[in-house]
Structure formats: C-alpha cells, structure tokens
Amino acid sequence: MSRAVAVTGTGKEARRRLGATELVWLALAGVLVIGAILVALDDQNLFSIANTRDILSRSSLLGFVAIGQTLVILCRSLDLSVGYVMALSSLIAATTMNGDPARVPLAIVAVLLVAGGIGLCNGLIVSVLKVNPFIATLGVGLIIKGYLDTEYQGPAGAVPSSFQQFGFSRIGPIPVSTLVMLIVAVAGILFLRKTRTGYHMFAVGGSADVARLSGIRTGRVLVTAHVLCSIAAGIAGLLIAARFGTGSALVYNSGYDLESIAAVVLGGTLLLGGRGGIAGTIAGVLILAVLDTVFNILAVDPFFKDVLRGTIIVAAVAIYARRQIDRKASRVRFGGDGGSGGSAPPGPRPDQPTPELAGGPR
Amino acid sequence: MTGVASPATTLLRMRGIEKSFLGVQVLHGVDLDLRAGEVHALIGENGAGKSTLMKILAGVYQADGGSVELDGEQVRFEHPLLAQQAGVSTVFQEFNLLPERTVAENVFLGREPRRNRLVDAGRMHADTAALLDDLGLTWLRPETRVSSLSVAGQQIVEIVKALSYDARIISMDEPTAALADEEVELLYRLVAKLKERGVAILYVSHRLKEIFDLSDRVTILKDGALVDTVATSDITSDELVRKMVGRPIASFFPDKLPGTEAGDVRLEIRGGGNEQLDGIDLDVRGGEIVALAGLQGSGRTEIAHALFGVDRFTRGTVRLDGRPLTARSPRQAVRAGLALVTEDRKGEGLVLNQSIAANARLVLDAVLPRRASQGARRIPGILSSLELVSRGSSQEVRFLSGGNQQKVVLAKWLATEPKAIVLDEPTRGIDVGAKERVYTLMRELSAQGVAILMISSELPEVLGMADRIVVLRDGRVAGELPAGADEETVMALATGHETEGTQR
Amino acid sequence: MTVTTQQPTPQRSAGSRAGDLLARVFGGGSATVFALLIVVFAAIFIVNPSFAEPPSLMAFLKQAAPLMILAIGQYFVIVSGEFDLSVGSLVGAQVVIAAALIDGEEGRTVPVILLMLGFGILVGLINGLITTLLKVQSFITTLGMMLVLYGAIRLWTGGAPTGALSEAFRQPGRGGIDMSVVRQLPWALMILVGIVIIAVAVMRSSYGRTLIATGDNERAAGFSGVRVWRVRTLAFVISSVLATLAAILIGGYAGVTAQVGQGLEFTAITAVVLGGAALGGGRGWVVAAMAGALTLEALFVLFNQLSMPSTIRPAVQGVIIIAAVAYAARERARPRHHQEVPSQPQPNEA
Amino acid sequence: ACTTDEPSDTAAPEETEAAGEDPGAEGEEPEDETADGEFFVRADYDRQLAQRDIAPEGDPATPWLQAIEPEYVDTAQYAQDGNTLCFSNASVSNPWRVTGWITMQQQVEVLQQQGLIGEFRVSDAADDDNKQISDIQAFIDAGDCNAIIISPSTTATLTPAVEAACASGVPVIVFDRGVNSDCMATFIHPIGGYAYGADGAEFLVENLEPGSKVLALRILPGVDVLENRWAAAQEIFGDSELEILGDEFTGGDGAEIKNIVTQYLQRGDVDGIWMDAGDGAVAAVEAFEDTGNDYPVMVGEDELSFLRKWQETDITAVAPVYSNFQWRTPILAATMIWAGEQVPVEWVLPQDEITEDDRDEFLDRNADMPSLHYAKFGGEDLPGFPAAWQDR
Ligand SMILES: Nc1ncnc2c1ncn2[C@@H]1O[C@H](COP(=O)(O)OP(=O)(O)OP(=O)(O)O)[C@@H](O)[C@H]1O
Ligand SMILES: Nc1ncnc2c1ncn2[C@@H]1O[C@H](COP(=O)(O)OP(=O)(O)OP(=O)(O)O)[C@@H](O)[C@H]1O
Ligand SMILES: [Mg+2]
Ligand SMILES: [Mg+2]
C-alpha cells in the first residue's frame, strides 16, 4: 500500500501521504538511532557484529508468526492459536525426525500438513460456521492445548544436528533462520502484490460484502489466509525444534499469539483489515527485536521491559491513528482564518465546459 | 462485446419471479423483459422489491420460483460471478468499492488480469485507463485511491466497473441517489453511450425526471407485484405515480398550511467560515423553509455540520433565537434547540441493529437523560403521525425500507422539539409516498414556527418547497433566490455560469 | 409483506413484561447460553446429586461470582464495540497491591480498598481515554495496559507478591452469613446480586441505551448527541472497577498467589460471547453475559465431577465453546443478503 | 508462563557424550521412556532416594557449599584473571525464584566488594526458552564473559544452547534444572524432583490409614521437572494402599486450587493432599476450613505462608524442600573455577524436608520475612540480611 499516490493535491498533501510502511521503517530507524545512543552511553556498540546478530536472530521466530498473522489480520480475522500450532509443530518435527537426518524432509512435510490442516479448521470455523475469529481460534487453540497436554508430558523427540543448523548457523552476521524468514517475507509480499488471492485479501478485509459482490469467493480467501498463517506458525515451530533440539509443548505459554498481533499492528496493518502489509510487519518485528537487544545490553529489568513494550506499542498505534485523522481532514478549501480564503485546488473534473465542478479529492 | 443486437431483440426474459425472506413474500411472480439497446426503468415505492429483483438478476439472491432466460436460454445465476460472466453486471444501491484500493484495483476486483499466473498490474492500469478514455473520463486516473474521490467520482467508478465486464445488460440501482444534477448529466451521457452499443440497461430510480429523460420503457412494481410495463412515451408522470402508489397524488408538493407565516429570524449565520466555507451569511425565520442548493461538494453539508458541532465555524457567528450558538458538539447543538437530519441515513442517522423505539429515543437518552423517559412517551404518537409501517416498535430498523427508516430518523429529532431543524437530503432514496409524507411534515413544522433549513440536490424539491433558496458554490454563498425561481437560474448560480443576472 | 401501521404502544402489562423476558431468554442470541446452562447443570446433578444441595450450590456460586462480575464488566466494554484485555492483569495487580499495602494489618483494609478502587478507576480512565481520544484500537490499548500492569506490579514487588492480606479483606470473598439451610450465605453472592441489579438498571437507563447505540454505530450515535468518548470511557471504567471488585473477591477467596488473574481476560471475553453478545458491539444482554460466565464455571465443575482427565479438559472446553457460538451464530443469522450467496461458485478463469 | 523452578535429573550425565565444537551437537533422546512413563527413570529415582540418606561432605553451617558424593574435577583449564560473570536466568516469575535471585545478588555483592567478581551481567528470559537461547548466544557472541551461569528454563530445549556455550571455551555453570549434556564445568542442583516427590508421598503413606483418600494437586502438565515429582509420588502411592482420588492441574493459582479442593470435598472425603509445589498449599487448607471439613494430612513446601498456617492450625504436615540456597552456589563455584580450584562435576546439594520438629525453628529464624519467602533460603549470613529479602 505504499505506492498510493495522490493524483491531485498539494505537495503538502503528497508528503502527508507517506505510506504507513515507510513510516514504520522510519520508526525502526529512529529506534535504532535512539537505541544506539543509549547503548553508546553504556560504552558499547549496538551495531557490532555480535549485537547485529542478536537483533536478527531475535527477530526470526516472531517474524514467521507475524508474517502469517499479517495475512489473517489483513482479511479482518485474527489467529490466537498460533502459539499452540508452534508448540505442536515443534513436537511433530522433533518426534518425526527422532534424531535421524534422513527423516528431516518427512518431518517438514508432516509439520506443514498438520499446521495447514489446523489453519483449514480455523478458516472453516470462521467462514462457514461464522464464529467470530477471536473465539474460533481461541477455541481451536484450547483443543490443541488439550491434545498437547494429554499427549506430551514434556519435551519430546530429537532433532538431528543437520537440522539444528537452521536454528544456529549463520551466513556472515545473518542467521540462517533470519534469512529464511526474510525470504518468506519477500514471498509473502509478492503473494500480496502479485497474486489474485493476495489482492483479494485486501478486498475481504476492506469489505467482505464488496468482495463477495465482485465475485470473490471470500470464504476461500479467508481460509487461504488462515492456512498460510498456520503454516507460517508451523515454520516457526520447525525453527523452535531446530533451536531447542527437541519439541516443546510449553512454547504456547510464551505469548507469541498476542505478541505477533502487536508486531503486525506496530507494523502499520489495520487491525480491522484491508490495509497494511508484510513489509511493515517485518519492521514491527525488528523494532521489537531491537528493543529486546537494547534492553538486554542495558540490563533493563525484565519487568520494566514489559512496561516499556506496552507503552511503545500503544504510542506507535496512537501515532498511526493521528495520521489517519489528519488525512481525513486534508481537504482544505479555505486556509486557517485568512478570511478571504485561498484558491481552490483544481480538482479533477469531467471534461465538460462547466467550470469548477468540485469533485475534489476527499 | 458480443455481436450487435438489433434493438428489438429481447435479451432477457424474467418470468414469474418469486422471492420471500423469512417467510415474507417480497416478490410475487414478476415478469420483466429487457431488449438490447433499451433503457428500461424499474420503479416502485420503497420496499416494492426493485432491489430484490435486481439482485436476483445479478445472482446475489436466488429466486424461489420463476425463470430467467438469457438469449432464449434458461439460466440460473448461483453467484454474482456467474451473472457477470454471462454479461449481466450491476451497479448496486449501496457503494461497492474498497476505499483503500485504487480505481484500477476496484474496477478489476475479482478478475485481475494475469500473466504467468501473477497479477499484471501494468495491464490492469492500462485497461482501466483505456476504459476511462473510452467513456471520456480522462480526468479519472487508474491509480487514484478511491477514498480520495468525491461521491460522484466513486459512483462513476462503480459504473465503470460494471461496464468493464463487457456487459450486455447493466442494471443500475439508484445510481443517481448520491449525485447532484450536474453529475447526473454525466451519467446521462454514459447511458447514451451504452445504448449506442446495444447494451440493455435496467434502471431503478425514484426520480421521475430521470425516468422520463432516459427510459424507453418502464416497469412498475407495487408490493412485490408487477403493476404494468409501458412505453415511457405513452404515460404521464401523474399516471405513473398513480400506478406506483395505487392512488393519485394530487399535488406533489403540499401547499403551506393556513396560518403559517414567517416570524422572527430564529437561525442566523454571519460571516461563517472555516477550512471549507467562507463568508456564509444565512437567516432562517420561524415558519420559513430555506433551501440550500448547490453542486455536490459545494459545502452544503459542511454548513450543516458546522452548525451542528460536528465541524466548526472558525470565523463568524451563529445565533439561535438571538442567543449566540457555538456548538462544539452535536450535544450542545441539540441542547440549544437544533436538530439535524443527516444525509447518510444508515451511516449517520440510525443504529441499525436496535429497535425502532431505541432509535427514536436515542437523542433524548443521549442529551436529556433525565427527561428521556418522559419525552419518549411522545414517540409513539410521532411515529404514527408519520405513518410508519413496521411490525411493532421493537422491530430492528435494519429491516425497514428506506422510507420508513427515514421516518424513524425524523421521529428521533421531532421528539426533541427543536427550534430549528436542518434537513440534509431528507428525501434521498425514498419513494414518492414517503416523500409526500416528509413534505407534509415540513409544512406542519413550519406552521408550528420551526425554522427549517433544507439541503437538497433535487431541484424540483428545492423549487417546490422553499420560501427562499440560497445557492452555494465552492464554499461560498453564490446568491439567494426567492421562491418561484426557475431551475436555470439556480443552476447558473450553482455552476457560476452566468453570474451577471444574480445578486450576491 | 404483512405489516401493520405503527400504533401507539399501549402501556405494557405485567404479562407482556414477563413475555418479553421469556423472549429474551429463549430467543435471539442468548438462547444458546441458557439452554447450555440448563444442560450442564442437569448433567452435574445427574452425576452428583449432592451438588444440588444448597451448601454446595452456595459454595459454587461463591467461587463463580468473581468471573461473573468480570464478565459483566467486560460486557459493558464489548457491547460498546471494544475489548478489554487488561482485566486479568488488573485483577492480579489489585490483589498484589492489596497484599503489599495491607501487609497483614487489619486497620488498613478499608483505606486500601478505597485506594484499589481509585486505581481501578484510573486504569479504566487510561484505557478509555487512549482508546477514544487517541483513537488506538482497544485491543491494542488494553493489550498494552496488560503488559504495563503485569510488568509494573512485578517491578514494584520485585517479581513475586509481598505482604499479606488482612482477615477483614478476606471476608467478602471468603465469608458469609451463617444460616441454616445453606450453611453459609456468601457475601460474594450478595455482592454479585447487587452488581447484577445495578448492571441491569444501568443497561435500561439512558446511559445503557446510548452505550449499545455507540457500539452499534458510533457515528450515528455521535450525530445524535451521544458523547461517544465519554460513554466508552465510562464503560472501560466500569470494567476496571468491576475487575477491582472481582480482585477483592478472588483475593479474599484464595489469598495471594503469584498467578492470580492470569488468563482471566480471555475467559471473561469468552463468557460474554457465549452469552450472545457480538464482538464489535451493539448486541447483547448483560444477564446473558453473566450466564455465560456461570456456564463456563459450571462446565469446569462438570468436568471435575466426571473425573475427566484434566489435560483433556481444555480440548473439550474448546469444542463446546466453538459449537455453542457457531450454533448461536446460526440461530441469529437472519437472512441477510450475504447469507444467500453460495460459497462455491464456478472457478473464475478469465 | 511457566512457573516451575525445579531441576531435572533426567539428564543422566553419564549417558551423554561430550559435546564437540559443533554448536548443534546431536540432541540426546533421553532413553528414559519406560513402561512407567516418560518421566520415570528408575535408576535416577533409586539414586535420589538413596542420596537423601547420605551425609553430605562439607560444613553443615554452609549447606550451599556441601556436596553429596562429590566427584571433583580439575578446573585448571579455566583458571583466569578476568572476572566478568554472566548469568542467563530463566525468569524471576515466581516467589521461589525471586527469593533465590535476591540471595544470588547478595552473594555477588559480597564477592564484588572482595574484588573477586567484576561486572555481573544478567539477562532474564521471562520463561521463554527461545529467548534464553538468544540470551546465551548473545553472551557467547559478546565474547567477554569469563564464566556463564545458566539456569535453564527447560532441560531438553536448552541443551544445544548450553553446548554452544561450552564450545566457546568459557566455563559454563548450570544450576537448578539441568541439560542433557555434561559439557559444563559443573552442574549444581539439590538432590532432585524424585526425592522431593517422594518426601511428600512417603509422609502421606506413613501418616494415613490404608484406604485413605489422597488428592494430588499439580501446577502444569508437560514440565519435565514437575513430572518427575509426580512420577516419584505415583511410584510410592502405587505400592501403598492409599486411594488416589485424582490429579489436577491448578496453574499454581490459589483460587483454582481452592475451587478444585472444594469440588472434591463436595463429592466425598479427602484425607490427604499431595502437591508438587507448595505455594498454594494454604488455599488448599482453607478449602477444608471453609467447607467445614477436617484438616487433611498436608504436603506443602518450605514457603513461609504454609509453615505459618501449619503452625497455627497444627495440622499433620510435612514441607518438602527444594533447596533455595542453591542460588548462592553457582556464584561461589565461578570464583572457585577462576581460581583453578576443584569443583564437583555434579554438585549435588542437600535437600532436607522440614518436619514438625524443626518447623518452629525455621519460623523463628524467618520471623520477619514476608509470607512468600522460602525458609531454607540460606542467606542469613549475608550482609544484606534481612532487609534485602524483606522489602524486595
Ligand atoms: N475531500 C474531502 N475530504 C474530507 N471530507 C470531505 C471531502 N469532501 C467532502 N467532505 C465531507 O463530506 C461532506 C459533504 O461535503 P460538502 O458539504 O462539501 O458537500 P455538499 O455540498 O453537502 O454535497 P453533498 O451533500 O451532496 O455531498 C462534508 O461533511 C465534508 O466535510
Ligand atoms: N435480506 C433481506 N432480508 C429480509 N427482508 C428483506 C431483505 N432484503 C429486502 N427485504 C425486504 O424485501 C422488501 C423489498 O426490498 P427491496 O430492497 O427490494 O425494495 P426496493 O424496492 O429496492 O426499495 P428501496 O426503494 O427502498 O430501495 C422490503 O420490504 C425489504 O424490507
Ligand atoms: Mg432498493
Ligand atoms: Mg451534502
């Protein structure tokens, strides 16, 4: 959504139209600068190889989940089951591999199938049974939780070292997992910008009725989003397995569900759907990762981190909201209190002799 | 475009269409024929079933009975997409655009052109541009975000979208409801172009003028049943109205009630201005109806909003009954004795999931909570005097027809016993019968000495009801005309065409 | 179309009022929850008839009261079109605050409770004002508040609660009036009944009507003179105050533990939705929301009485919630236009 | 969040091979899946139960320096002058960890004043395994830690990260829960979960008539360390004539505990309660009071609120202990390692339950401590005592 260009309007207006995505990346830059200064005051360097690696590796896990979450949120849905899907996936991966490098491909396929299947359930419950996504995915999460608690009394399975590389190796300063996450992100961006289903996600989120009347099978789009979201969570589960060397059910306690939603919203995607994108989400994830690293370097009390994170998320969204309000009021015909009024911006007009038909931009 | 059909070919034949919702039959065996190259008007009161019929044709609803034949072949559209693929496209009554997406994305929504399975944005833009050029809409750009367009612009995008399907049949459900006369002209030209190409157009409107201007034949529905299909040239507007309403309507605009006389100035704006408006001077006397005319976006609604505290006047003064009024919120305006019937009924006027009763007493609850219950006792009386048709006061308003919804909005404001009332497009999208009821109500109010400011895009209404007409152009008062002015003068002022003859 | 012209509504007779109530309970979106409640209770009584004895029921209501109070608070927020995810954290925070400030001294009970109410009001105000004035979606506002409260309280106490509650503080949640049949009439139940009565009255008052209207269509409400920001902020304050009361009951009932309140926000929201309220606002009945909470608590009891393995319970709970909400959605869905659009059209190859 | 704090001994170090320099060494599949359940390894169970009766080496006045059957290793390879100490903490999200964390900081302060420790760098993973892995990696990458102390949040999942830390060449000290590797310089823990579970279960068996009914209350499923406690209890109950009414998960939430106990009491008598962690024991006792039932035989923990309730009501009870003083040991171990002194490879600390006999003594000692404090915190001799633990 960053390409929207106002055809008419003053330069001032055009500047204000700076896309949400750009703004998030600017915010990321801001956070980096401020963080770097704070870290420098502590006589350290935020951009050292070690710290850069740290930032990047912290972003990968949340990144996967948030990419998926972006898709469902764009469709005006929500997925609160991602944490459980991650946990289940890590267990399926580790128990399927069971230490045998030859079984890695099998495990990956199994994880993606199971995760996709859960996404399918989520999507069908939301689109066919018309259960509010909040409740639907919360319920599905509980069901998975019941299964996990019954089936696994603790970490299970073993991941061969070849697959652990996914969690631990690096290419230069870039962890492999982050690289994969970025590749998935690019794939997601292309998906949204280049495929019909991607286009239709914006439509379904923007207005399901409009989408339906335009011949879009909204149910399928929504289900697709949920399937992709769960698959992304499944990949996150694979990463967990690689990093843990085993599968762990307790991942669901780590709050990735709400954190991923926070990252998506921080990334400028509208919680009500229809606007936003993955590029912004990645910036949102990176902002959270930078904060984490900076807090760690500065040895900020972990509870203070929660306070700051809560504040920052709310503040960021407040800023986006402000921009939104400004934009609505952007049609100025008579500036301030000048009294005699400025000139009307030449609105786009039908090609007819009648002058000044004000079909101006709203 | 599939083959050029001769004007007489019957493209579409609907026979005995039946439809019911929740056990209530809303269409009783309706027949309809559409010929290539004709404009076929469909009229009827609110709730007559026009939109329902159209949605059956569009594949949004499925008929319970009856048949649809396209080119002599029986068809059944299970989904809007199938209708579109068969060359039937529809401009629906409600807007069907995504404000956050571009014109091109909206036009091609659901069938974006692809190359190698990927969306070909370049071609999409090029095709949209070609389509727009073809219709002479060069000022509209494919990459404009729809939310930045005016209502008229959005309406045009809707029509372009319908056209882009290579449609042989286009149905339009009140396409002009949101347009000012000036933009209606543009639509006329589009329709003429389509006719030339042999497209059959099914046209729903409550504006009789358009029916006579545009249509070749007209089908009249009443209570879901077919009344008649006639050639437009064979019928007068009185007859048409009689068929539609089931009774003759003597004079469309009721006369002033005896004893109505313009009293003191109740509502007064001096030099009002803000970002949208400048130098607004306006007086409305008790017992007087003043109309605000102007083109789309000329600032009429803005005046209403500024008066009512939704927006502000940053300059100038407003007085109500001599007392200065600086409403910073609707609440303050209501307290001062002002009422505003908004132009967007569903978006701004009603809480659709709530009952008629809850809607009708909402203002009382919000502004005068202490006297709400007492005030609410008046409401049943008001509703029945408005001849509201409903299944009881606990019915949710979303199930009411447009005209009845408007009556609920009016009742809500009348319950506050306002000193002055602003009516923004009070008859938009409502049928003749309901319109007449609204006009009568306005006469009654002015007989009681209420100051009425009416905003309207329908010139006949402005000319028929107003004691004075204030014409707005570009946020400024372009001139003031007495009752009995003619359409040309008003339009001239509104467009700024021939400014000589009018006084400022 | 069979329609009637609106007649002036006659004064409503007592009979029609009762009829109205029945229609509310067994019609519309709340039918499912009452049906489910009856089924669950019937099942409990069958499994364990002694549960039907008054003392057991009293004990059950005592433990269910806090969640019901939370659900009522959440109802106000949800019906106005918002979410309050911060209540769980707030309950936890309030209990910890109480323990730390009272520190076992009876004399401090009342001042600390007043302070807690003040803190609750403050949290509600912040939630409400950020949501309404800064236009941050409440999901995010309250998510942020949840994090802030969680962190701030632990920051303050160094991670785990300190201090101790006084006996007087524990009375409302734990104690009651001893009497014959029921053994003990819990204070918690009386407080609950009081809150329900007030809540029903509030929802019937002008404020309640404007609140639902705001949830339904905030623009229309605004144009009707509703001070949307005020109405919504007040809903958040109500939610926070009720969360505070719930905290007093929970703290009283079970004392301080580090985990108090965790996850309660989701249970409360689930209860409200189970009670037929629409997320997004404009629909729902406060009594049904409370019944939703009661149903959830009863469900937990049933699981226990059935000796269902505790690990499997979340799964059963999930299935029941989804099924109930889906069923209610089907019930409520009146044919609107989208309903009739089939979801499986032909492939659209262009 | 995960709220447990106990170690696991499932990682029988002898089973694991030395970690190579490959940071992603083969994760071990613990071969402990016996018919008795995933979390019951008879050898470990037997060893822990036996260790309870072995007198630890060292001064009983400083139990945190005692060791049961220590097997000393030479740490000369790690001897160095640097004294930056890095600590990756799983979390401080429950009272047990909070108490221990204060003790640890107090210990560090003492040693810092003595100049033995320079910078003390801490990262807290807030119970998130993945975060803790990143935290450990950050320490490794920073390259200036002279020793890394790790309190893993979960045994199995942190194994690769700990191995990576070992591979970086710094001495790694693991305490509380273990990992499935023996690459670290020392692994410090009290006897363990089996012993803890058994202490309570044996007490119930001894103090209840055959046929009595026992309710087991547990925190969370799936936490290996808690599963060990329950597995040991099951083993002992299995050989007894007690009837186990059920085992319920409470999330450690007092209200939940009270609800569950009340519901059981509505169905019939409950004679004894076994808990896998005692911080909610008071709520369980209150459920009996509020429903007018006789007190059960209780298994609690050395948490003060429980000890006080026990004293006040004079019920039959025992407080198994999961020695909180272990938080001091890793700090001391680090300085010992830097000095090239020998430390036990597996440093097993004593873990003695509190019984009615020594209960009052511990209550006296901790008379001014808050209720969520742990009696065997072992910090009485530190300069910050008692203020540091009182107003935390
Ligand atoms: N470009 C715009 N940006 C934001 N708001 C706009 C824009 N154009 C119009 N509006 C709002 O839309 C409403 C209608 O605008 P305005 O008063 O200019 O039109 P009008 O003359 O009443 O025409 P009509 O009512 O027929 O739409 C007002 O509330 C105005 O503030
Ligand atoms: N989805 C629906 N569910 C129930 N009733 C409906 C539905 N759609 C339309 N109706 C009812 O069917 C009748 C016909 O409605 P329809 O919208 O076709 O009228 P219309 O002629 O288009 O009216 P208007 O001029 O107000 O647009 C009305 O009484 C309306 O209330
Ligand atoms: Mg219609
Ligand atoms: Mg207008």
Automatic annotation (TrEMBL), chain A:
Residue ranges, compositional bias (Gly residues): 335-344
Region entry Disordered, spans: 332-362
Gene Ontology MF terms in the entry: transmembrane transporter activity
Compartments, record wording: Cell membrane
Top-rank taxon, per record: Bacteria
Mode of membrane association: Multi-pass membrane protein
Record-level GO cellular component terms: plasma membrane
Protein name as catalogued: Monosaccharide ABC transporter membrane protein, CUT2 family
Organism name: Jiangella alba
UniProtKB/TrEMBL annotation, chain B:
Listed SMART domains: AAA
Record-linked Pfam families: ABC_tran
Topology class, membrane: Peripheral membrane protein
Keywords from the UniProt entry: ATP-binding, Cell membrane, Membrane, Nucleotide-binding, Repeat, Translocase, Transport
GO molecular function: ATP binding; ATP hydrolysis activity
ABC transporter domain mapped to chain residues: 12-248, 260-499
Record keyword Nucleotidyltransferase present: no
GO cellular component, one term: plasma membrane
Cell location: Cell membrane
Chief place where the protein resides: membrane
Listed PANTHER family: CARBOHYDRATE TRANSPORT ATP-BINDING PROTEIN MG119-RELATED (PTHR43790), GALACTOFURANOSE TRANSPORTER ATP-BINDING PROTEIN YTFR (PTHR43790:SF9)
Protein name from the UniProt record: Monosaccharide ABC transporter ATP-binding protein, CUT2 family
Protein source organism: Jiangella alba
From TrEMBL, chain C:
InterPro entries assigned: ABC_transp_permease (IPR001851)
Top-level taxon: Bacteria
A Gene Ontology cellular-component term: plasma membrane
Pfam families reported in the protein's UniProt record: BPD_transp_2 (PF02653)
Transmembrane segments: 21-47, 59-78, 85-102, 108-126, 138-157, 185-203, 234-254, 260-279, 286-306, 312-329
Membrane topology recorded in Swiss-Prot or TrEMBL: Multi-pass membrane protein
Intracellular or extracellular location(s): Cell membrane
Recorded GO MF terms: transmembrane transporter activity
Keywords tagged on the record: Cell inner membrane, Cell membrane, Membrane, Transmembrane, Transmembrane helix, Transport
Protein name (Swiss-Prot/TrEMBL): Autoinducer 2 import system permease protein LsrD
Upper classification of the organism: Bacteria, Bacillati, Actinomycetota, Actinomycetes, Jiangellales
